[in-house]
Model the fold of this input.
Amino acid sequence: MKPMLDDLELPQVQEVVTLDRRALAEHKPPGMAGSLFQNLGRRPTRVVLWGVASGPDARDFADKLDSKFRAAKPVPFTTDIVADSKIDQVLIDDLRLQDLAGKPERFAYVLTLREFIKPVEPADASALDAGILDDAKQLVDGIAGALKLAQALATGLERFIPVFSNFVTRLQQAGGSGNRP
Done:
C-alpha cells in the first residue's frame, strides 16, 4: 500500500519513521528518598517520511502538498506502518521541498506529520461560571479604552516637539560656550 495523504499519493517514499513519546510527571515527596512517576498518557504520534517526486506531475504534486500544508487542517493519512496504530487523521507540522538541481522535474520532500486527536467537548457545560465571560469582556473593554487614551496622548505630545527641540538646542549651546575649567 502506497502512503496517501488525503487524496494525494506520496510517490517514491524512501523511509517512514514513527516517533512515539509517553508523558510522565515525576513527583518527589518531601521526606522520601525516591520519587513517584505519574503516567499522563501518550503524546500524539509523529510520522516523518521523505521521498522524491519526479516526472511531468512533480511540480503539480509539490504545489498540492504545499497547499495542504498551508491550509493547516487535519487530513486523512494511510500507510502500512501506521495501520495498526489507528492513526486516521494528521496535521502537517513541517514540510520541506527541494528542487533537485540538474534533474528537471524532480523534487525531494520531507514531511513531518502529527496525529490529530479531536478535542473532547466538556460533558456538562452548566457547571461553568457564566460570569467569567462578562469579566473577560470588561477586561478587554478596559484595555481597548486604555489603548485609545495612549494613542491620544502620543498624538497630543506632537505639538511640544518644536518647543523641546529649541530647548535642547539652547542647552547644547549653553554647554558649549559655558565656563569649563
Notes: The mean pLDDT is 84.
